[in-house]
């Protein structure tokens, strides 16, 4: 019996997330599961749109994220069709994608760019609360 068929790895694309990526690769390989990668680029705060260039900044962030995702895709052997880069709030987009793709496991890091001062990062906590499938939080070392 295969434990998982389709795994969604939510990544903040930082070097610190390497152990999370490694675990996702090992688990998907071990289960013979498909692996999909997702990264979302958060919208700039509303006041930023008062400045000229805010739209360009968002586009540049999205392009930079696509480039990093493409490198991650090569490292993990995940084809472009299974790499998702979109703008929007990470929690909502991760949960939406998980349902749309009917994945049976979401993998997130216990923490991210906001550091390890709290028990769980806010994205990890929201995904845990909102997911309809299993969630694996890969522990970041303090
Ligand atoms: P944080 O809430 O920033 O502490 O991040 C916790 C975990 O949520 C990270 O290790 C990632 O797995 C995931 N995550 C955070 N930000 C994003 C993002 N923009 N896109 C996809 N996943 C993310």
Q: What order do the helices and strands come in, and which of them pair?
A:
Layout: E1 6-10, H1 18-31, E2 34-41, H2 54-76, E3 83-87, H3 90-100, E4 105-109, H4 122-130, E5 134-138
Parallel strand pairs: 1-2, 1-4, 2-3, 4-5
Helix pairs in contact: 3-4
The structure holds adenosine monophosphate.
Residues 10-12, 17, 20, 38-40, 90, 108-109, 111-114, 121-124 line the site of adenosine monophosphate.
Labels describing this entry:
single chain, 142 residues, five-stranded parallel beta sheet, 4 helices, 5 strands, globular
Give structural notes.
The chain has 142 residues and is an alpha/beta fold. The protein has one domain: 3-Layer(aba) Sandwich (Rossmann fold), CATH 3.40.50. Helices cover 40% and strands 20% of the residues. It contains four helices and five strands; from the N terminus they run βαβαβαβαβ. It has a five-stranded parallel β-sheet, with helices on both faces. Helix 2 (54-76) links the parallel strand 2 and strand 3 (83-87). Helix 3 runs parallel beside helix 4. The longest helix is centred in the middle third of the chain and has 23 residues, at 54-76. It is globular. The termini are far apart. 26% of the residues are buried. The model has no long low-confidence stretch (mean pLDDT 91). The structure holds adenosine monophosphate. Adenosine monophosphate (AMP) is lined by residues 10-12, 17, 20, 38-40, 90, 108-109, 111-114, 121-124.
